[in-house]
Amino acid sequence: MKKKLNMISPRFLLVLVFLWSFSTHAQDATVTGTVTSIEDGQALPGVNVLVKGTTQGAVTDFDGNYSIVANSNATLVFSYIGFTTQEITIKGQNQVDASMTEDATSLDEVILVGYGTQIKREVTGSVQTVNLTELSDIPVTQVGQKLQGQLAGVQINQTTGTPGEGLNIRIRGQLSVSGGSEPLYVVDGFPIAGNLNNINPAEIETLTVLKDAASTSLYGSRAANGVVLITTKQGKIGKTNVSFNMSTGLQSVPQRGRVEMMDAVEFAQFKQEYYQDQGDPVPDIFQNPSQYEGQTNDWYDAMLRTAPISIYNLSVSGGSEKFRASLVAGLTNQDGVVLGSDFQQVTLRANMAFNPNDKVEIGVNIAPSWVVRNDPATDGSRGTGILFNALHTWPIMPINNADGTRTEFNRFPADTGNIFAYANWLNSAERIKNEDRDLNLVSNAYVDWKPIKGLSIKSSINAEFYQRNTEFFSPTNATNRINRPIPTNNEAIWNNRDEFNWLNENIATYTNSIGNHNFSVLGVFSYQQFRIDRTRIRATDFPDDRLPVIQGAINIDRGGTFDEVQESTLVSGVAGLTYNYKGKYLLTGSIRTDGSSRFGSENRWGTFPSVSGGWIASDESFLENAEAISLLKIRGSWGVTGNQNIGNYTQYALVDNNVPAVFGDTFAPGSAVNSLSNPNLGWETTEQFDIGLDLSLFKDRVSFIYDYYTKNTTNLLFNIQVPRESGFSNFSDNIGELRFWGHEFSLNTVNTTGRFKWTTNANISFNRNEVVALAEGIDQVFGPGNLHITQVGQPFAQFYGHLSDGNYLNQADLDSSPQVPGRSTVGSIKLIDVNGDGVITRGGLDDDRAITGNPFPDFTYGITNRITYDNWDFSVIATGSQGNEVLVRHLFSTTNLDGVFNLLKDVENRFRSVENPGDGFYGTTVGGGRVTGIERDWVNDRFVADASFFNIRNITLGYTLPGLEKYFKSARIYGSIQNVHIFTKYWGGPNPEISVQNNGQGDGGNLAPGVDLSGYPIPRIINIGVNLNF
Amino acid sequence: MKKIILFLGLICFIAMSCEDELNVFPEDSLSVPTFFNTEDDFTQAVNANYEPLRSLYNSTKPFMTEMSADNTYFARNTAFGATETNQDIADHSMITQGGITPNGNVTNYYRTLYAIIARSNQILVTIDDAEIDAAVKANVKGQALFLRAFAYFDLVQLYESVPMHLEPVLDREGAALPLTSEDVLYGQIVADALAAIPLLPLKSDQQPGRVTSGAAQTLLANVHMVLEEWEAAEALLKSVVGSGEYMLMPNYEDAFTGNSDNKNNMESVFEVQYREGAEGVQGNFMYNFLPRPIEADELALLFGTPDAQPINGQGNNIPTPDIIEAYEEGDLREDASIMYVLTRESFWNDGVYPIIKKFVEPHALHNNHGMNFPVYRYSEVLLFLAEALEEQGKGGEALPYLTQVRTRAGLGAHTGDLGDAIFRERRVELAFENKRWFDLVRTGQAIQVMTEFGDRVINNPNAYYFPVGVEAAGNAFTNIRERYALPAGESEFNPNF
């Protein structure tokens, strides 16, 4: 009977309890039962069961069972840390089972902080925790994608849709001229060198973001970009729990947001008009544009496909008093929405903990993962990325031959203006191999010894091994470049990268209370070493495309072949004190010292102090009676952190050993010192001040968090140009200052409770920055490609170019306006003479360029609504960004008025004559590159587009299946849509979060953000899934 | 508690011993603390000290010390956009403001010379303490001193006052030094060259192509010639002549190297070394000394290169009618120095231009050749000696040295004033070897000669390679000055300019 009851739903039980209550009398009897968690049906061991009003009590065993003697009219009180305390009246039954609810907003909730945990209520810094299980239905492969919109003050942009790549995560807007801005990731206490991409989200128990300096400064010289703490799933004492989750879906690129290009008829029409306006004979193929009716070759669309994605995760966890374990295995199989691209990932994690006695815990975590990813040069600049190439390929060029086979390449006679041969990009996508094979292994082993009450001494060894082998092969019958007729030369690049990073860390903590004084002291000593070995080999001209092996290559390109070793060592000590009086006056202080091999010999050790305080005003007597206020906490913090992404050997004067000479006929290798040493080189220093308010109302139905921060980053790593009389061109020094400030608001509300439960989480962040100083005598630096300027007194990395004012409408307008000498004509773009010297100049002392836009948003926000109703659950996640702009860099091709490429449909509205001046956005095609080149190559403000957006990122509808208790603890099915719809005015492409480097690949980085070169689009995913618990 | 104190003590101990662990030097390249120790290190360092000369002699130096004078001129290609950088050198129309100019050649020349100086300084500051073979040490040190003196000598002649770095720059503060006066610079140049002479071996004992004691003596003599210290020059030059290490090649045209032969011949005192190929030590100066545009077949005909590619752009360093006129009747050197090529696509007259023949040699790779560029030849030693003697009123002693040079050129006795004759002889003997501008400046004739030359160009542009109807630029020959202004690109970083 008992066994059977166990498998019956709690609600059914309640009915039984109700029925039995009438048939019993008040007398002492033995009551037994099982206590389970309502969330996952798992048995809860160690639950206190108390007969109300007595001292009679019991504790549940490993299977959650208890037995207690109680009066048949008594009430049982079930209490357990982290769960809401529950009371059940016995009413004469001898079987009372309890299902307990996890208490997410419990004030006693313990959260992760640097080198330990803390009661959430007593935290004095700005710390935010994300519950990843709530986000498990989002059908994406990267942790960062799931976090979008969940965290105040954390901007997460997906800059490309390339599978498994492209997240830019920035906490509180942190920036640097030369160093990176990626936060520090700490996995189970181990600061890893890599990023989040190799961690299967299903392995993560909690993810905590440390934002203010008092929270992060424990991580010293690596903390300035913020810290993300991740704990992976650990086994719990109790029954073995098995869960299996799978989802499968279809990805596709929505029509919305795609760049609207000319179709075949429109393009032929444009070309016809181009020749007519020029007064030149129209080539035959453009004589009759309507002949192309219905014959458009949409190359961009042809590159895209609907592609499947499947994600499987299996978790097993459980344990006893002596041994606990958690295993997670994951498999992801994704085809990309661009032809030829795909992604597969296999992850495993085994976390084990042994407790030989009650004073010692020994644990081992091992997590290998494998990734195989192919991306056939999809992203790139004009002429190198096949997606960009496809976008601007003439729509009259056939994708297929008349017999249905694909064309190999297309080229029209030179007199048509087709100066480049175009390969068939579909072939390129399928034939070019650009495969990454990653192996990642993160492991920890520790001993935690608690010799006396309150004292813990923990020593750990951690290792991270990461290997990436990249193989690029472009056969003779494919190319990612324009102007390469097929067949072409074949080419292979091998890139092998091995990273190894190990850490020994020793932590001592002692916690005690003396009267109303509660304190905890912390001491840490750690030693960490990093090493990267990299080999790159480039070879060309393989006699046989089927054998792209090094020994088969005719040429090994010495310039493209090299070996590289990068090493560094970090030695650190931390001391910390957390103190509170009566739990309402809170004070925390810490100091960290980092010695790094990256720092110059005269500046080896950096010290990073912090202090923070808090006051729980709601505990004061004057607020005790304010029933509405459950928590009012005011907190403030100050601290210093560092950014040590300054390069491993920047401090040294390096010797270039490739400076050869020749004497007579004898070649003579030569070596010369090619950089200046700087023994004073150090970390970038960020001093941060934070003030915050935590307010919970109406028994935590409404909770509100506000933070204001201000940061000053000084000692920026800067490559200062020095006079060449020194024999060198620059000197790396710590110089310059940036200022950041911002406001963050989070609001969580429980709108309704009970059967229809509706909660809302919302956050909004305002981040600002300003360049206070650069180097002496230097008040501006340009980003790569000169599209951005970082200028003293302005926000960082602003778009930079000419300002435009329509076209020169007629001769009089031309004559009376400043011109580009010898290049401006009637109908050409009219640029603004910023310095008022009467001439338009680009570069040099008389430069007329100015700031044309700002890639940073005014504010970003996220809003998540969750509703549960009986067995149904429903959630909507949306994020937004306001005021950010994007530089539509691909216009230098897609509005190239020389008709070399296909064009934006909008170019139809260009200037054609004084009588037909168009809409003032595109100039005349007459005059050749001398005239049109200004509009194309002199980047101007027309390239800058508003990229504010509101993105409904995910909608999920789930249903927990009843009546399957026989087979499962729980079973749920759901459907979800990822990237449902983006509301935006952005017209440069489908992704307003895009940011690429000048070569179209990778993120644009700090100095050059927000550039669109028509990269890999982000797909919409329509998905179904199941969660099964056994 | 004891255990905890022990534990903390252990941490302190480990922290102390970590200082060494924090010295991590790069494994894939050498850094200064690990370099400059062995004999091979110093040899490699001094080899790198010669490297900047290759780019200097490929274009910048010929443009600024030959094309800037009246021996060669710029050939305008009207179909190509302006390249003011070179044109402004030929036309003396550089924009100068407050003693600085943005001209790219002026910047490159300056920077290249300081690269040589910095490399010399790195060697000189460390070599005395190095425990290496004494002979190697002396040789390396001598070469480094020579090259530093050589670089400062060009700097002082071109720019007059420049910063003087004698030690490696170690930090940002030390990177920009004040301008040093001409006198002080010359003092240092003389001291360096003087110190180099006894350290360097004779040519017969030195690896061919490296500088020798004879080269150092010639350099120092050249310095004394510029300073008009005739007696000192005479003594050094006589020592070179008396060393028995040098003689004139019987044929003038054999004084210049082939693509891979005849290098560092008996007439050569010092030449910039090149080798054709993919190792990165090739020259391409002859490609910079051609009229343009020039077609592939025209280049193939000239150089015999199977992979010739057409070249567009502007023509540089084209012999002027003036230098052609300067050769006396019967001078064998004219045909050895100047030839004519046809460029069909040119807009100038019939497209037949004179070019510098003395450096034209057949080779295999387009824009990649192995001819060396002469810096000092023995004939210049003879002409310097003749000049030094003549200036001291020892005309009779001077004459045989002049005659030796003229005889090889197929010429008899000179006519007119001996001093003038020696100067005229230098022009034709050393034409296109980057001597003319320095000669005009040191003899105080630069302004006058170039003003007259400018008048000829402006009045008859077609004779100076402008297509019919095209005028010289409006600012041509409006800024003739004996010294170049300092580079604007450097003034940004050196507040002392």
Pick out its properties.
heterodimer, A: 1030 residues, mainly beta, 22-stranded antiparallel barrel, B: 497 residues, Serine Threonine Protein Phosphatase 5, Tetratricopeptide repeat, two-stranded parallel sheet, 18 helices, 47% helix
Outline:
Helices cover about 10% and strands about 45% of the residues of chain A. Chain A is mainly beta. In chain A, β2 and β3 form a beta hairpin.
Structure description:
- The complex is a heterodimer of chains A (1030) and B (497).
- With 1030 residues, chain A is mostly beta strands.
- Chain A contains 12 helices and 55 strands.
- Chain A has a 22-stranded antiparallel barrel. In chain A, strands 10-15-16-13-14 form a 5-stranded mixed β-sheet. A 4-stranded antiparallel β-sheet of chain A has the order 3-2-5-6, with no helix packed on it.
- The longest helix of chain A has 15 residues, at 264-278.
- The two termini of chain A are 21 Å apart.
- Chain B has one domain (37-278, 373-491): Serine Threonine Protein Phosphatase 5, Tetratricopeptide repeat (Alpha Horseshoe), CATH 1.25.40.
- Helices cover 47% and strands 8% of the residues of chain B.
- Chain B has 18 helices and 11 strands.
- In chain B, the strands form 5 sheets. Chain B has a two-stranded antiparallel sheet with strand order 2-7.
- In chain B, α4 (104-127) packs antiparallel against α5 (134-159) and α7 (213-226) packs antiparallel against α8 (230-242).
- The longest helix of chain B is centred in the N-terminal third of the chain and has 29 residues, at 39-67.
- Chain B is globular.
- The interface between A and B is large, with 61 and 72 residues.
- β33 of chain A pairs antiparallel with β1 (30-31) of chain B.
